[in-house]
Amino acid sequence: MGRERNREPARRPGRILYARAPRRLRGIVLVALAILAGAPAARGVPVGHVSPWRFPIEVAGVGLEIPYERSHPLDVSSPAIVRVVIVIHGSRRDSDAYFADVMAAAQVAGEAQQTLVIAPQFLEEEDVVAGSLPPTLPFWDGGWREGDRSRSTVANPRPARVSSFAVVDAIVDRVTAPGAFPNLQSIVITGHSAGGQFVNRFAAGSAAPDRHPDRSFRYVIANPSSYLYFNPERRVAGVPGAFAVPSASAIAACPGYDDYRYGLKKLNSYLAAVGSTAIPDRYRSRTVEYLLGELDTGTTELSMTCAAMLQGDRRLDRGTTYFAYIQHVFGGAITARHGLRIVAGVGHSSTGIYLSQPGREALFEPLGNGPGDGRGDEVPQPSEPDRDGDGLPDVSDNCPLYPNADQRDVDGDGHGSACDPDFDNDGVVGAPDLLRLERSFGSRLGDPRYDPVLDMDGNAAIGAPELRALARVFGEAPGLSRP
Asked: What is the model's pTM?
């Protein structure tokens, strides 16, 4: 397999649109871009950033390349690396943001120097069109979440197709190759939201732990919209912990409820090669951590298909139901390998999940705990949690999920400036805040347009960091999310 290659990041379409817009319309363009940045990636909306590194993978003699982020070159040996964390992005395909979240968690946990973080990017057709990307870069139609093969269309033909699960298998093979990382002990595969869906199905299908028995594997699944069920049973509404085959009328209303990606019927080619009998056995044998946000009870990017709704009404409900389900299917002994952590004060936020203490513990469990022997050795919870690791306990931290030891609060509203894009203090980050930011966008200290309340990072300039911070929590309350 060839060496990794670097490609300059594609110029972001949003920047082009803003630069080319007439000056009198730039405010409107800025509003539109911010709303899009804060919304789920929709079909036809390309990613803003294509990861610069290229992971080579060969399929039937044809070379393909997968964009990805990494903290250390994969083709340069390092004895310092003892853990690899492979993080799978969400539906927005923002691998750079997920890479940054896990790197920040590694820094707070004191694990950055010995951890290699890798974030592959699974593009969709609109991404390769917008970036004029070469045919060696595969794309999917959303099926990357469940391991489907990439696509080839008349408009954008590709020389070969590859399962997204096979891509991660290949990354695992690369980092475990003889001489690559000689002291590597642990491989963690994690994902949040759509990435959590990926990891749940990948853990059930991949043979990576069986191919590499000399390494420990952990799967950290955070806030997915749905899960893979191993038999036709689903929850019995109103009866906690009870499961049964849905009624005939429910099945008639949702005939595909047990098809893959929700069940084991009509498997894709990757899972079909494993077989419906072996899949439950593989999942039972894996070491899995489920991370659920205590406040993830909304509908942001939530799957509302009838098959998903049979698993529960909201993500928190679906996650706790699934944890009860695997005990129902596999028996109570499964909790020796599968653990559930509910993250207090966090909603549907990869930043909040990964930077929390439960998130850091799940990602960076002390080495030496082999598969299945560390479930009872939890790190004691401090009496005053400090989820962002800035030295201030959450109870007295004005930005509990973003390190801000200076506690800067320009407008004096109790929310630290670093996590407070609610510039008008009405309790919701919305259009008035965006318009106020637009008026000062690009200004610096000394400029009449400069407004210190809007300078969230305190660098005497108002620009892209503030816009990204606002877009990330648009429509929500301020105070918790990281810029």
From this structure: 0.74
